[in-house]
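Entry:
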Amino acid sequence: MEGINIAGFLTAESGLGTAVRNTVAALNAAGIPYALTDITCTSSRREDMTFADAITNTAPYATSLFHVQPDVAAKAAKEVPEEFWNASMCIAYWVWESSVVPSNFTLWAKQFDAVWTPSTYSQKILSDAVGIPVHCVPHAIPSVVHSVQRKAKTFLCMFDYLSVFERKNPLGAIAAFQQAFSDSDAQLIIKCINSDRFVREHQQLLEAVCDDDRIQIIDAYMSTEDIHQLIGTCTALISLHRSEGFGLHLAEAMALHTPVIATNFGGNTDFMNTHNSALVECTLQPLSANIGPYPRGSLWAEPNIDHAAKLLQSVYKDDNSIRSELPEEFSVSSVGMQIGKLIEKISGA
């Protein structure tokens, strides 16, 4: 079977790191050979050694997959072996979270033959902008077995400050929680990382929490196993994001059968529906100014806090009200088969 060269943040403890590691897990499930190059130009901690022994920084195959976003592509490209770019098919794996695509995507698209992206939401956005074929190849979500019982009435919100505070919108989750439970034994855990790089935003978070001792902030890196345990033991995960290109932590929660309450907008709607999750009503609004890498005029969702609060109350009263289950098409075996078919098509062309 023809293999594939992959370059990405293989040791980074971030969403991008998890994404490329999950792609490798899908290749393993499908028995597809690969050669790995670790990209190190990241602000995230780099201590995930899941595939460290398999990193060779070589590129012997005819297909190359560059699992790196355009904003750091110039630095990352310098870390990739020259033969990586000499492959007969070079593919970028990108994701985007707003309706306006920055010019660096269009410029970098000229270096590739195709783009893979994890959601139909992102596929539509990128297809209209990059001028090369864009295929939807979902993030593979490994199944996780855990035996720890859930904590009653404990909700969880997770985000990385590097992923843009306004987009992840933890303040919305706090507002919904406090509206839903003015006086109860419910608890909210805010799990975050990289606050030291975003002092102003973290101060906003602290001010929103104020003296509410029902809200706990865990501001630290954790191992994948500990994160899965945290997700697996909470009553529900809440995400009042304004946009998600996919929503890895939401899919991970569903794989753990943890109920998910999330904004009904973005890539997460590929795997979330009214039967397996609680979707929060929202309205779409254009950005009035640039926010991080997201240009002015981009459409984002504004989640309905009242509706989110009612959904929190519903789960609080009956934590079996949501039958959380991730669709099979997002499993490592299913995504591995899809990647295998794409590689066969490329090699047979």
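The radius of gyration is 20 Å.
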